[in-house]
Specification:
This protein is α/β, with parallel strands linked by helices. The protein is built from 5 helices and 7 strands; from the N terminus they run ββαββαβαβαβα. Strands 1-3-4-2-5-6-7 form a 7-stranded mixed sheet, with helices on both faces. Bound molecules: guanosine-5'-diphosphate. The site of guanosine-5'-diphosphate has 19 residues, from α1. Necessary for normal cell division and for the maintenance of normal septation.
């Protein structure tokens, strides 16, 4: 079932000012340019809900969208942009950390990874920290239409092997493309039962 309604709700730079945790919430994060805005637009069926490639690393805001009047989709700022100073990186880490640890309604974090790029330390470290905090997350491979099926499978296998060096079990994977809309139904079907559980 596609998303019927998707509306921008609020942007802020202070995790304490996020909306009250009255709806289930899902956060989307990844390195700058991973395809996060494109994925959010693809999932919601809106062409410009999230802004595609403005200036990478520039917007350090937590953006809440309300989907179907039922759940929050949260667009977190992209990390790992090389051109930012140490002070900005620290500010960013504090912002993300404050957000991640402060949301009782955060049911899952979608960590986006470009399927064409081999496992990156910054992504693996980010996931490791989520694990340390006991926060649930899944991995979303982006831009997968760029790889043929064999190359994609090899990339997924390599990623899984890398994760299994640290984790006992690999997290759930989603295979997506903003170009073909691959993965949309899978992600929405993953979210719906969690929403139903939250309401109980
Ligand atoms: P963000 O910085 O993570 O929000 O990334 P954007 O959504 O702005 O995308 C970064 C670049 O990757 C843009 O040039 C997009 O057109 C491109 N892109 C995003 N998703 C896909 C995809 O699924 N397939 C392909 N081929 N390109 C994509």
């Amino acid at each position: 079932m596609p998303v019927k309604q998707a509306e921008f709700f609020v942007s802020n730079s202070d995790p304490a000012k996020c909306p009250k945790p009255d709806r289930p919430e899902y956060a989307f994060i990844g390195r700058s340019n991973v395809g996060k805005s494109s994925l959010i637009n693809m999932l919601t069926g809106r062409s410009s809900l999230a802004k595609i490639s403005g200036k990478p690393g520039k917007t350090q805001l937590i953006n809440h969208f309300v989907i179907d009047n039922e759940w929050y989709l949260v667009d977190l700022p992209g990390y790992g942009y090389a051109q930012v100073s140490k002070t900005e990186r620290e500010k960013f880490a504090a912002l993300i950390d404050g957000y991640l640890t402060g949301r009782s309604n955060l049911l899952c974090i979608f960590v986006l990874v470009d399927s064409r790029i081999e496992p990156q330390k910054i992504d693996l470290d980010f996931m490791y920290n989520l694990g340390e905090k006991g926060l649930p997350f899944v991995i979303v491979f982006t831009k997968t239409e760029k790889l043929g099926p064999n190359k994609l499978q090899a990339a997924l296998d390599a990623y899984r092997a890398k994760l299994l060096e640290t984790w006992e079990e690999a997290p759930q994977f989603f295979i997506t493309s903003a170009v073909t809309a691959a993965g949309r139904e899978e992600i929405l079907s993953f979210i719906r039962p969690l929403n139903a559980e939250f309401r109980k």
